[in-house]
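To close the section, here is one more complete example, presented without commentary so you can practise reading it yourself. The ligand is F0G.
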Amino acid sequence: MDDNLHQLRCFGCGSRIAGAQAQPNFRCAVCGDLFEVEYPGWIQREGPNRPNPGALKWLWRERRCSSEALDQSGVWRFRELLPILSSFGNAVSLREGNTPLYHLPRAAKRLGLDQLYAKHQGMNPTGSFKDTGMTAALSAARERGFEWVACASTGNTSASMAAYASRAGIESLVLIPEGKIAWGKLAQAMDYGAVTLQLKTDFDGCMRLLADIVRQAPIYLLNSVNPYRLEGQKTPAFEIAEAFDWNVPDHVIVPGGNLGNSSALGKGFRELRELKLVARVPRISVIQAAGANPLVRSLNETRGAVLEPMEAQTRATAIRIGNPASWRKAARVVQESDGWCLDVSEAEIAIAKAELGLEGLGCEPASAVTLAGLKKLRAQGVVHSGQTVVLVLTGHTLKDADYTIDFHRGTLLSDEEKLGLEKEIEPLRRDAITVDATAAAVLEALKGRVG
Ligand code: F0G
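Output:
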């Protein structure tokens, strides 16, 4: 690994180490905080080594027409801004990234917004945004010669890790909270050949245990405490900026769980501004489920100085996290970008998910918190009609089909959760009904709707 190009800087105390010197749990030996990758050669410094913005924009767009595997990746297409490998030949790619940015005409109309979009990260190879980070960190694992990688997960990280590890011929270990992840994700980890262990604890318990395990065995940790994950996950910020011809949208809204994604997107936009590829950074808002809202509490109660871990509870299992690892980084992103951090109820999540479905864009419940959060921000009058807003949809709808079916059958939400929102919920429900196998019965079911 050529550590001249990048180094790790502790987010807490600022101490710097070479990439190869990181402890197995990726915590700072001085203060215990997490690291960020920095590029002293050119990102931080003025001077002749700075990349030329116009040339980079041209190069990145050109690569979209290339038949080279690395150029076809929406992460490695931007490799000048993530020189974390000594040889890009070590990159393990499934052609991640380059995900679609969809206009949301119906939600925009309802909310009185002109420009509302969804960046659908669920359209990645394993169906979630994790692939953009996994290609980067798994490639680092391969370059360092690891034969085993591991993660704790609410499901998507494990699905992604298992796939990339198998591509690279590396063994993978998955720790998941028993009974608390969606079936689609569990199926993926098995399909891609991971050793999958279900533990009688929650996600936070799995994380704690894994930090201990990687100190005792030569296993490379692939949770988002690994700073290389965030290097890959910052690239959707580049794609968003590129899609708007390098005029960033006013506002980007992301779900918050372990808080790696919001941290990474914030870093991506910050670096674009430092390199003068864009003139400003968008507001970045983080939305959590009300039953798993430690960052909301931290920002409201202590302005982000302290985070009190909590026992998390939500049907949006991807973000059922009470002690998020990257909370300090995410708090800084929200504060520096002048964004908001708020929470939404179980019913608000379910409604927003069904509304996105009716735009022809399914997503995971965890992704739908973004639309639910935007509705709240609009109601509070803080997002204005002329503003351009991008919702980051993090996972594919097929990841958690049980959730969708329960919603449409009417068994997802309790009466208490639905209270006051029944009129919004009922028209969104589309239960599958059983009828006789005759034309008459089918036409009867359509009565009043066709013609
Ligand atoms: N949306 C989905 C679909 C997720 O899977 C996750 C996190 C998030 C949002 C939250 O992102 O953690 O970066 O703030 N899933 C992790 C996992 C924790 O293990 O798959 P975050």
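Once you have examined the tokens, check your reading against these statements. The mean pLDDT is 95. Residues 347 and 420 are 10 Å apart (CA to CA).
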